[in-house]
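User: Show me an example of a complex going from sequences to structure tokens.

Assistant: Sure. Here are the input components:
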Amino acid sequence: MDDVNDDTVAALRRNGYIADAEIATALYLAEELDKPILIEGEAGVGKTEIAHVLAKLKKTELIRLQCYEGLDFNSALYEWNYQKQILSVRLHELKNKTDVGISDFYSEEYLSYRPISKALMADRRVVLLIDEIDRADEEFEALLLETLAEYQLTIPELGSVKAKFKPYIILTSNRTRELSDALRRRCLYLWMDYPNYAKELAVIQLKVPELDSELAAKATQFVQALREQDLSKVPGLSEAVDWSRALQVTGAKTVDRNAVKNTVGCLLKDRRDIVKLKTEMLDPLLAKVGDQPR
Amino acid sequence: MADTFDSVETTIDFSLQLFRLLRKNRIQLGTFQTIACTRAILSLRAVNHTSLLCIYRITLINRKEDLFHLKQLFALLLESYRSPPSAEQGEIEAPEKDQVLTVKRREGTDESSCGNDEEELAEIEGYSVAEVDHHKDFRYMPKDEYPAILAVLEQIAKKYVSAARRKTKKSKRSGIIDLRSSVRDSAKFDGEIVNWHYKKKLLTHTRLVIVVDVSGSMEVYSKFLLNFLYFLNQNRHFNVEVFVFSMTLQPLTEYFRLKNFQAMLDAVSLHFSGWSGGTKIGAALADLNESYGSLVTSKSVVVIMSDGWDTGDVNVLDHAMAKISNRAKSVVWINPLKGDDNYEPLALGMATARPYCDEFVSGHSVESLREFARLFSA
């Protein structure tokens, strides 16, 4: 099993993603067991990125369905192309063609594909990313169940359409609402926490290779220490990467008071947090970063 | 000690025992998951404990909350698996998970089975209910009637739960063209579309931002309101954000997703140990504006439950209320004291806040909570 994991981890790394054994196992199992993966975790820890990297890794297309409140059947699964149907009827009338029946107008030709049907009908295994599923309504989850479990879609006029190539399905959720058990049961589950020091450092070095390695280590220590503070919006991995890039661009030599003050907007996205950092937290945090060379 | 099993067969045997143990500890585990887990083990030929735990985490668990329990149970089972008990020691007893509040109403029996103990609220299999007085003030209800009241509240909440709403509705002139309906109608005119039909989206989510006073005098009422909100929250059309406060503001929304809601309520009571320490409504609302300002939008209804006895600065309250009423869709104030016919909002805090409120309800009895729910049912 370790070989499998090492291979996957290495392949992901080549595509710009630092993964641990759990992520590697989940991706491997998703492929092996033909199951969707439900990824939950804090904002900015790289949930959506997994889908992008998987698509790159498998050299295939990424089909993305961004969920939102009120997302419905027609914009997610499929829709009949009414305009085309009406035009066809008219044309047949003009040509006095009488040898067509109702079912002729309910064929694949008149179907408008939406992300889910598009992923199922694709000519190869694609990656279907259903992003932020917790933003959609609970009823919408029920619509997904058939696709998630059977990789098929039932269109009343056509019958069940089975996927020619089962897509890799990745669902992400920020836990703004509890997802139904029915959905959870059909998926593999991956909880992504904030990364540990080593992983975060590796990600920063990978994403911002120009950054001096000592500075990268200090920046990582700073972010790790910052996460332990009482903040209303804890910085995620993406914020850490942005901040490191900001440090590199502004030409900071080390993580000091000035460097942090100038670039704090990349790290913290809440006014009160920023004020708190500048007034109370900065000195103890900087002391920590200075004290603990790793 | 070796941290691998001898063979895949042993691993499977171990896994089967783990499935049983997880289920016994009320971690939801379907056959979908157990099959996936077994297939994963077979496919990866996993015998290493770390790898196994990784597989279990991915295939068996589908909630972050359960991860901790899985780890614990895994370690426990592993220990007993390595050194099987010599005598029959019975099943492994895992640490008890928090009790789930289950309220079932059983009618038509006598009144003798009601318990007096607070703890009985946590686990109620069945109990007798004669009839709950829907107009009686919660303050005067004997504790042994609490389960019955909760059951009634759940029923009322369910009424709103089952109110099905469609995403679109027919509209006379405005909205987008409903082709389906227009085409169907055209059959009357030999395929010619004479009347265009329209549909428009129904407004679904009302975001409720609820701020509940849990200081001494309000304890009883806030407990029932929180329970009622919990039941209402089963209706996913409501987007509920909950905060409690006495001196400071504390977000509770996360707990509304938990199943052990009763345990949460108890924790809230523990947390706010300074019960009669006074109330700073102004400071709490100002904190809401500052820290959670993004929740108060033109789509959200802000519900504040408090008796209006503010020990803080009135000006702070005035500013905070002005800000909230400007930004929110509407402001509802629940004041249980209003249940009294002779009540007038004279307390300084209440007098300050009253002009900013669109609705002023009492929430002191079952009936008044029903009225409260009606505000959102339209």
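The lines above are the inputs; the final block is the predicted structure for all two components together. The first strand of chain B starts at residue 106 and ends at 107.
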